[in-house]
Amino acid sequence: MREKTWLTVLFVVFMWFAFSYGQEMQAISLPKPQTSGGKPLMETLSLRKSAREFSSEELPLQTLSNLLWAAFGINRPESGKRTAPSAVNWQEIDIYVATSSGVYLYDAKTNQLKPVVSGDQRSAFGRQSFVRTAPVVLAYVADFSRMGKASPGDKEFYSAVDTGFISQNVYLFCASAGLNTVVLGIVDRNTLATTLGLKPEQKIILTQPVGYPPKR
Amino acid sequence: MREKTWLTVLFVVFMWFAFSYGQEMQAISLPKPQTSGGKPLMETLSLRKSAREFSSEELPLQTLSNLLWAAFGINRPESGKRTAPSAVNWQEIDIYVATSSGVYLYDAKTNQLKPVVSGDQRSAFGRQSFVRTAPVVLAYVADFSRMGKASPGDKEFYSAVDTGFISQNVYLFCASAGLNTVVLGIVDRNTLATTLGLKPEQKIILTQPVGYPPKR
Question: Looking at CB atoms within 10 Å, which of A76, A170, A178, B176 has the fewest?
Fold first, then answer.
């Protein structure tokens, strides 16, 4: 009887892991980004703003693909260069993407979201309640190991500037696509680093929720 | 005879000062920026790149006005908010504008270039020779005194990120308008601070030349 109970518990635990793993931990192939269209640049700049309210409505996968390409996608496939510059072309910033189902890493080369951790982790991406409402929350994470022989101070400085370039692309994409967004500097970086399983040489720079404006 | 020579020298020196001052040190009122038009955002992002070659051809004043408005102009006059975000809305980044005739400070509120120092100072804005060819070289300068009670580390961090937002706007404006640009991190900041007459609480973040591609 006892043995049977234990076997049942083991079976349930096994199935739970298998199910979670099977359900959550698959790479998502994004649709090809639409690299033309959008509002004219000067109108987009006119509409650029920070907004802290979000509908929980999901973003279509095509919109998410366009957003990530705009942020830091490859715009010159022959050289692998990106929509935002980076010091010495280090390309040291990674974009983590949190949704209600898990956290993924944007792979610009394969245009995929690679699984990082399952489950709704959005609350680790910022202190404000709207971070848990926005359907997508980005985290910009620098990998200092890609920054060569730069001094620690230079790594801090350039990873901050390089994140600004990318984050502004997100702002402008949102302005063009009718989405709300705001960049967040006050983040519990230790908690989020643990959630994402970061290496010591990875540093969380900023986070940025994205979503539709709330319905009126 | 000697007295007459001295009087002549004094007169020439006086006229030179009067002429230089009169010629160089006046504020330039920029034409109203054109806040609509430009290439569609996604095409602009497709064209975003760093380019290190410049024609010495001057930018029309309208283009310069559009460029500076795109960079960090006021896009919501009712609140004074800007085309790029800044931490806590400190708006701590100033844009200095070097041309062959002098250096000016962009005043977004009055849409003017305020005189800072006369003469061609572009060589102080970067080490590469193309910095002396580009008709316009921007310098992004943080005024830490506007950043409230932030810690020194936070002032460094946020002023770097906030410059990234602005610099990306310049990149995208250039991509839309057919201009070349590249952001520069290696700048002799002490020399440039002296040239600009900066206060100790002002920090030069980056510089960015802008101009037409060289004629082929």
Answer: A178
CB A30 within 8 A of CB A64: yes
Distance in angstroms (rounded) separating the CA atoms of residues A68 and A138: 9
The stretches of B25-101 forming alpha helices (DSSP H) are 41-47, 61-72
Residue A15: is its pLDDT beyond 80?
A: no
**A16 or B185: which carries more pLDDT confidence?**
B185
Q: A87 CA to chain B: closest CA distance, Å? A: 8
- A-to-B residue pairs, Cβ atoms closer than 8 angstroms: 162
Strand partners, B115: B104
CA A184/CA A198 separation, integer angstroms: 19
**Helices B61-72 & B152-177, crossing angle to 10 degrees?**
140
- Phi, psi of A84, deg, nearest 5: -125, 145
Q: Which residues are registered as beta bridge partners of B75?
A: none
Of B41, B70, B164, the CB nearest to A163: B164
| A19-78 tens-digit pLDDT | 555 455 699 999 999 999 999 999 999 999 999 999 999 999 999 999 999 999 999 999
- Alpha helices (runs of H) in chain B, residue ranges in sequence order: 2-24, 41-47, 61-72, 152-177, 189-196
Beta-strand pair B112-118/B74-76: unpaired
A contacts of B168 (beta carbons < 8 Å)? 84, 164-166, 168-169
Task: Determine the residue among A83, A156, A162 to mutate to test chain B binding: the one whose Cβ has the most chain B Cβ atoms within 10 Å.
Answer: A83
The predicted pLDDT at position B19 comes to 53
